[in-house]
Design brief:
The complex is a heterodimer of chains A (about 260) and B (about 260). Chain A has about 260 residues and is an all-alpha fold. Chain A is built from eleven helices and no strands. Helices cover about 80% and strands about 0% of the residues of chain A. Chain A starts with 8 loop residues before the first helix and ends with a helix. The chains are: A mainly alpha (about 260), B mainly alpha (about 260).
Chain lengths: ~260, ~260
C-alpha cells in the first residue's frame, strides 16, 4: 500500500532543522540575556507613576513647541519620500532584468538598494547630522536614503512583472526608448508605483517622528527635550499628537488608495 | 472648430491638485534652509567624517564591548520575535472578520492599531521608564511592534481564506479548534512563517536602535561613540550591524524556500 505524505523527507528534515535551530536560539538568548530583576520589583509602581505624571497633558506645550515641529515632521516625511521616488525610479529601471539587459548594471542597482535598506533611518540621520548639522535637512536626506532601497526593490519587482506584449508592439513600430517607457511600461506599473509611494509615505511619517531623537528635526526634537527635562505631561502630549497624526495618515492613505487604485 | 479631438477630456480637478502639490513642495523645500553655503560646507564635512571613519577601530577592548552589544541585540531580537509572533497568532485570529465575532474583531483591530502606531524606539522610551534601563525594555518594545505588524498582516491573510476547506472540515463535525488546526492553519502557515521571518529581520534592525534611548543592545555603544566623535568605532559597529542584517536576510530567504 502507498503512503501519502504532504512533504518529502528532505522538506521535513529542513523544517525540523529550522524548528530546532530557532528553539536553540531562543534558549540561548533567554539564558544569556541580562535582565536586572531588582528593576522589576517596582515596575508596576513605575508604570502607574508614568501615567499619573503624564495626565493631565501640558496643553501649553502644543503651541509652544509641538505645532511647529509637527509641521516639520510632515515636511520631512513628504519631501524625503519625494526625493526617494526621484532617485529610485531610474534605479529600478536599471534593476529590472527585462528592461536593462546587463547583469552588471542590474547587480549594481540591487547593491544600492540592499545597502540603502540595511542602514536604519536613525543611523542615516546620525551620518547626515554629522555632515549638515542638526535640522530638517538631515531628516529629509536620511528618510530619502532609507526609502530608496524600499521603493526601488518593490517598484523594480513590479517592472519585472510587466507584460511584454505592449512593450514589444511599441518596439516593433520603431518607438524610441523613452516612448517605450512612457507608453509601454508606465501604464502597466502606475498602480504599483502609487501604491508603493503611499505605503512608504505612511511608514515615513512614523519614522520621521523619531528622527528628532538624534537631532534630525521634526516632532522628535520636542519629544527629546520634554524627555530630558522629565516633563512627562509634555511627553504624553507629544505621544498623543504622534498617535493622532499616524492614525490620520493611515486613514488618508487608505482613502486615496481606494480612490485611485 | 477645433480640429484636434482629445481622447480624454482634461480633468481640471486633478490638474489643480498637481499644481497644489507642486506649490506645497516648493514651500516645504524653502523651509529646509538649504543654502549653497551649507552644501559647500557639507562636502568637506562629509570628507572629514569619512576620513575619520576609516580605518574602522579594531582595538581588542572596543571589539569586546561591541561584540557583547551585538550579541545582546541579537538576543533581544530573538526573544521579542518569538514572543511577539506567538502572541500575534491569537491576536490575528481575533482580528479576522471572517472568523471572529465583529465586536471582538473591532477590539482586536484597535489593539493592533495601538501597537502599530508608535515607532519601536518611542515605545521603548516608555518601557525604559516602566522596567528600567536594559535589555528587557527593548524586548518589550519590540514585542509590542511585532504584535502590531504580524497581527495586522496575519489577520489580512486569514480574511483571504478559502472557505471551502474550512467548510469541508466543519462538515465532518469538527469543533472550533479542529477547524482551526485542520482547515485554517494548513492554508496560511507558509504565509505566517514568511511574516515571522520578515518580522525577525525588522526586529533585528530595530534592536540595534533601541539602545539610543536605553533599551539595551548595540545602540547605546553606537550613540555614545557618535557623541564622543569616535567615528572609527561608529564605523566598526555599522559594518558589523550591516553584516548581521544581511546574514539574517539571507537566512530568511532560505527559510521561505523551505516553507514554500
Amino acid at each position: 500500500m502507498r503512503r501519502w505524505s504532504r512533504f518529502s523527507p528532505a522538506e521535513r528534515a529542513a523544517r525540523t532543522a529550522f524548528y530546532a535551530l530557532s528553539l536553540a536560539a531562543l534558549v540561548w538568548s533567554l539564558k544569556r540575556i541580562e535582565i536586572i530583576p531588582e528593576f522589576l520589583y517596582d515596575a508596576p509602581e513605575q508604570t502607574a507613576d508614568l501615567f499619573k505624571r503624564m495626565w493631565p497633558f501640558d496643553w501649553k506645550f502644543y503651541p509652544a513647541a509641538i505645532h511647529a515641529s509637527l509641521i516639520e515632521t510632515f515636511h520631512i516625511a513628504t519631501l524625503g519620500t519625494l526625493l526617494a521616488l526621484i532617485l529610485a525610479v531610474p534605479l529600478s529601471f536599471l534593476a529590472a532584468r527585462n528592461f536593462t539587459r546587463s547583469p552588471l548594471l542590474n547587480w549594481m542597482a540591487h547593491f544600492i538598494f540592499v545597502s540603502s535598506r540595511s542602514v536604519n533611518s536613525l543611523i542615516w540621520a546620525l551620518l547626515f547630522v554629522a555632515i549638515f548639522g542638526p535640522g530638517a535637512l538631515a531628516g529629509v536626506l536620511s528618510i530619502a536614503c532609507r526609502s530608496v532601497g524600499f521603493v526601488g526593490k518593490l517598484f523594480g519587482e513590479a517592472l519585472e512583472e510587466a507584460k511584454r506584449g505592449p512593450v514589444e508592439a511599441l518596439v516593433a513600430c520603431g518607438a524610441p526608448r523613452t516612448l517605450v517607457v512612457v507608453k509601454g511600461y508606465w501604464p502597466q506599473v502606475e498602480p504599483a508605483f502609487w501604491s508603493v509611494a503611499l505605503l512608504r509615505w505612511d511608514i515615513n511619517i512614523r519614522e520621521s517622528a523619531v528622527l528628532g531623537l538624534v537631532g534630525a528635526g521634526g516632532i522628535g526634537v520636542a519629544l527629546d527635550a520634554a524627555m530630558n527635562n522629565l516633563y512627562w505631561d509634555q511627553v504624553g502630549l507629544c505621544l498623543a499628537v504622534i498617535f493622532a497624526v499616524v492614525l490620520t495618515t493611515e486613514l488618508v492613505t487608505h482613502s486615496i488608495r481606494s480612490r485611485i487604485l | 472648430m477645433n480640429a484636434r479631438v482629445k481622447a480624454f477630456a482634461p480633468h481640471w480637478g486633478s490638474r489643480l491638485a498637481w499644481v497644489a502639490a507642486l506649490v506645497y513642495v516648493v514651500f516645504a523645500a524653502s523651509t529646509l534652509q538649504v543654502s549653497w553655503e551649507r552644501v559647500q560646507q557639507g562636502g568637506p564635512q562629509a570628507a572629514k567624517l569619512l576620513s575619520r571613519m576609516w580605518p574602522p577601530n579594531m582595538a581588542p577592548d572596543k571589539l569586546d564591548l561591541i561584540s557583547s552589544g551585538m550579541l545582546e541585540s541579537l538576543q533581544i531580537a530573538v526573544i521579542a520575535s518569538f514572543v511577539g509572533v506567538v502572541l500575534s497568532l491569537p491576536l490575528g485570529l481575533m482580528a479576522a472578520r471572517n472568523l471572529a465575532p465583529s465586536l471582538l474583531a473591532t477590539a482586536a483591530r484597535v489593539a493592533i492599531a495601538l501597537c502599530r502606531s508608535f515607532h519601536p524606539v518611542i515605545v521603548s522610551i516608555l518601557f525604559v521608564k516602566a522596567v528600567g534601563f536594559g535589555a528587557l525594555a527593548g524586548v518589550l518594545a519590540l514585542i509590542v511592534s511585532s504584535m502590531g505588524f504580524v497581527g495586522k498582516l496575519f489577520a489580512e491573510v486569514l480574511e483571504e481564506l478559502d472557505e471551502k476547506q474550512v467548510e469541508a472540515v466543519r462538515a465532518t463535525g469538527a469543533g472550533f479548534l479542529a477547524v482551526l488546526i485542520m482547515g485554517v492553519m494548513p492554508q496560511v502557515y507558509a504565509r505566517f512563517i514568511g511574516l515571522a521571518a520578515y518580522q525577525f529581520d525588522s526586529n533585528l534592525r530595530n534592536s540595534t536602535m533601541v539602545g539610543i534611548v536605553g533599551g539595551g543592545g548595540i545602540g547605546a555603544a553606537l550613540f555614545t561613540a557618535y557623541q564622543r566623535f569616535d567615528y572609527d568605532v561608529v564605523m566598526t559597529i555599522l559594518v558589523l550591524t550591516i553584516a548581521l542584517i544581511m546574514l539574517s536576510e539571507a537566512l530568511s530567504m532560505g527559510l521561505k524556500r523551505v516553507f514554500r
